[in-house]
TrEMBL record:
It holds the Pfam family EI24. Keywords: Membrane, Transmembrane, Transmembrane helix. It is a multi-pass membrane protein. It comes from Lasius platythorax. The chain crosses the membrane at residues 72-94, 127-148, 168-188, 200-219. One of its GO terms (cellular component) is membrane. It comes from the Eukaryota. Signal peptide: none annotated. This is Etoposide-induced protein 2.4.
Amino acid sequence: MDSVTGIIYAICRGFVDSWKGAVVLFYMDKQINEKLDLNSPIRAEHRKRDLAMQNSFRHNNQQRKSMVMRRTLQCCALNGGVFWASIAIFEYGLLPFVKYLLTIIFGHSPGMALIVWSWIQPFLSLTFGTIWVLPLFLLSKIVNSLWFQDIADSAYRYRQGRPLLLSSVSRLIADTLFSVLVQALFLGQGMLVSKVPLPLLGEILALVHMCLLYALYAFEYKWFNMGWELHKRLTFIEGNWPYFLGFGMPLAVLTQLPSSYVTSGCVFSILFPLFIISGNEAEPVTGACDIQLKLFSPVIAIANTLFNKTIGRANRR
């Protein structure tokens, strides 16, 4: 397989694999819970003698029951049914209704209606954004992160077994903080390259950045549970970028369609659980290209500098 064919194959394979979660989702819970029931130490002949122990085990087993489908539906309900729907009702229901009322009240003076509307519309939008959108957006981010982790852990146990994690709490915290910093810087780098004077080139570079970033988001839960540190995760993506480019493409394209950042965030939160499951199911195509796409290297260098300065100052104190 030559280089170009291998790259195209890896991209297409990543694209197809990214949708596996939408299929696995419908039977994952059933298989996980059947496995739990099969592993149950309860035996029919011991039921009477071990009744107390059985009740305790059943209680614990119920708590361990997989809730991947339930968590996914909750993400859809919160982000689509509550958050996104409320914004749509406000934008396409309440505001047009208020504007219509003003045209009736000031029917004799259309100019006055426009003046009043020019004052009321920004006030209503600001009030709605401050009192409802911003608090709900922050709440959804916190709740989504918990639900995403729950989905990822269940999916990992279903396919891989018990998570390994990192060796110490300090390394765990440092890796998490460093990962958040690198992802934030990489997002900024993607926005920066989108400003390249050649419009088409800038859009392509920004899309590549978002594809790789979303692929990192999806696979990070799996790799984190495997005990991979951040540098290993990023090196693996840079070395096998064609596959991860294809894997992150659907989510990157779908989240860029809305013009509103908040709406884009809702789309991401609704679809992302499927990509977490897809990441756990996928077997990335490796070795498709000999050239590493070192897009993470600049932000890693910046993050290392910031971390070293921060830690160095803290140690000096």
